[in-house]
Amino acid sequence: TLLGGAVFNLPLNAIGDEHLQQARRVLESFDAVYILDSDFLKIAETSLGWKCKGSQRTGHDVIEMMLRTLATPSGIAHLKQQNKFDAALLETGSHLARLDSVVFQHSAFAASVANFRCQHKRCGFLCQ
Question: Which residues of 40-73 are buried (b: 16+ CB within 10 A; e: fewer)?
Answer without folding.
Answer: ebebbebbbbeeeeeeeeeeeeeeeeeeeeeeee
